[in-house]
Amino acid sequence: MTEFTPNGLVSLLTDFGWQDDYVGQMHAALLAVNPGLRIIDLCHAVLPGDIDSAAFLLKHDARHLPAGTVHVAVVDPGVGSERAILAARLSGCVYLAPDNGLLDPLLRKAETCEVRLLNNRELFAPEISNSFHGRDIFCPTAAKVAGGTPFEELGPVVYTWKSGDSLEPIREEEQLKGKVYWVDRFGNLITNLPAGEVEGLTIRIGRRRISPARFIAEGNSSDPVWIVGSKGTVEIIVNGGSAAKMLGIGVGHEVNACSEEG
Amino acid sequence: MTEFTPNGLVSLLTDFGWQDDYVGQMHAALLAVNPGLRIIDLCHAVLPGDIDSAAFLLKHDARHLPAGTVHVAVVDPGVGSERAILAARLSGCVYLAPDNGLLDPLLRKAETCEVRLLNNRELFAPEISNSFHGRDIFCPTAAKVAGGTPFEELGPVVYTWKSGDSLEPIREEEQLKGKVYWVDRFGNLITNLPAGEVEGLTIRIGRRRISPARFIAEGNSSDPVWIVGSKGTVEIIVNGGSAAKMLGIGVGHEVNACSEEG
Amino acid sequence: MTEFTPNGLVSLLTDFGWQDDYVGQMHAALLAVNPGLRIIDLCHAVLPGDIDSAAFLLKHDARHLPAGTVHVAVVDPGVGSERAILAARLSGCVYLAPDNGLLDPLLRKAETCEVRLLNNRELFAPEISNSFHGRDIFCPTAAKVAGGTPFEELGPVVYTWKSGDSLEPIREEEQLKGKVYWVDRFGNLITNLPAGEVEGLTIRIGRRRISPARFIAEGNSSDPVWIVGSKGTVEIIVNGGSAAKMLGIGVGHEVNACSEEG
Q1: Chains with ≥3 Cβ pairs under 8 A against B?
Q2: In the prediction, which pLDDT does A127 show?
């Protein structure tokens, strides 16, 4: 489905953090154009420049929003350079993001999608800085698309874009090789191992075997266990503690699902 | 008053923090059901699993919101286990929270209230994770209640629930024994000693006597003083500094109000 | 232009941080009065009591919001004391802030403005704490002004107020002496040197010369460069790193623009 009928919702996903005025300026840029919008701050605490983590969140979170939503994802170390900005229409939503791989996992898996190069300056702010396209390009455009500006006006259709992390585990005969994509406030280690593919397999971090549990409180405070997390993937947790601290690992660390003989 | 007429406001109080996508997903879950809602993030920085602090904030903050508000409080270490979820109607508002003591102080003090076991799965998300009921149960339900779903449809009436911290100081003959329930960004120590009950008494932390001041700027930068804080309780502050750091104490530390002879 | 027609937007700028319930209570206070308002959290992470940084953000951010917005700025170490609260009408907007210099740079540069002493208690909350006027005075008043209460009702006109940091660099014959006013999440050093005034000049921190770049990705990871930042001022950055850490400097540090002979 590549049709799009705006529902007035705009989601934001960035690495701008909460300690500056960047998120506030994005809200201002949206509401200055269209005060009736509803804004959802999906996450602003992506590690600076961490495109893969942002793609991971976007993949898992965007699907909880209804068709008609405009998703803005700005993790953009190339801001101000020649890097392009993509606008994609898929699953009834519009996505705006720099062309740096952030949208690639979504686009690759889409049954059908239309991708355009966002280059229609009439949609942007009158003055465009070289370091904050979130405020000057992404949000003014998102507000207009959410308000009814046709997707076709954003720019010309393109058929190629920068590839990015697939976000998929590597599927080998005896095992699934995944990794940690997010460490949350509680120290839970969120992996890309789909819960539906690890039945009967053993979860391992290096040589260490991680036991399964049905929910957090079934674990104890001295051993990590894994549960099916809220993203539908293997999540390693410690009941009342931090798995990240106890295991001393973080984003990018390998987590595997192996057949017991493996 | 146990009547409830929704006003379109939903308040959120959690220990999910701002560094992940959990709050964003809750907003998404609310607005996906009912895009017209107004959401108030009362606080998301409750220490992980700290039910008492959350109850303390809820008690003091919820009363500033008008009748008709739906309050969602999720500090929920038992998520996914057999623990129940409560829905309470009191003071013209509806409260949703896990049955872990979080609502107990409000319910105990309510002149009249109706408490139900939230178990009507038709109100929940189609898929329910074992670790994020905030997104899958609390918010979809809150959005529906805020949109007019009758309170009676949430589940059966219950007459008992888990008890929790009373949040009250211990009233002895010669003194009021209270404690610190919150340490804020400024290092202010917020206690549960009601300002109205400490007139003529001396505030002490251990043997140390804390002098009173009328407002922050009346203190100096080298001595803690106490003021009547914004929750109507004794608050220990240092003008231009952190009382928590200067005194080396935090949440749970005892603070007493004693008659001078005491 | 000192006319004001409310557009339903209220912006908030404070040093309350995100770790407490203070911002949530401000939202509650606004929406309790007027549930139709749209609230923009410009920034809540101003360093505690740092009036100059708040003034710097307000000066640069408020202009991105349309005429009709009510701006609330609360960095207020004197809360509860005799310090006054100002209400100013300029550029089609209304500003509320403590009289501690926060509004001074805006007022000084305004071609025309009307300033009033906010003292009409009928607009405030029924109970006023001595430590949280953001909740008890600023927000109830802002909600009413945003809802149509005439500016004239706020209090009497005043013609003097506390002066504050001019936020301007010192203009000498051979150089412009500026400083760092904000360090962002990325470690970028945001100065008050207007990009339009440094053409042909050399940017220096002490004896160290900082080379210019057009955008962040043009820099490298081992040397700071300066770009025209998103506030239109000189911003010192390290591509993929933190200029603040690499240079070991922060807010208040001097940054100069010198003619090469200077």
Answers
A1: A, C
A2: 94
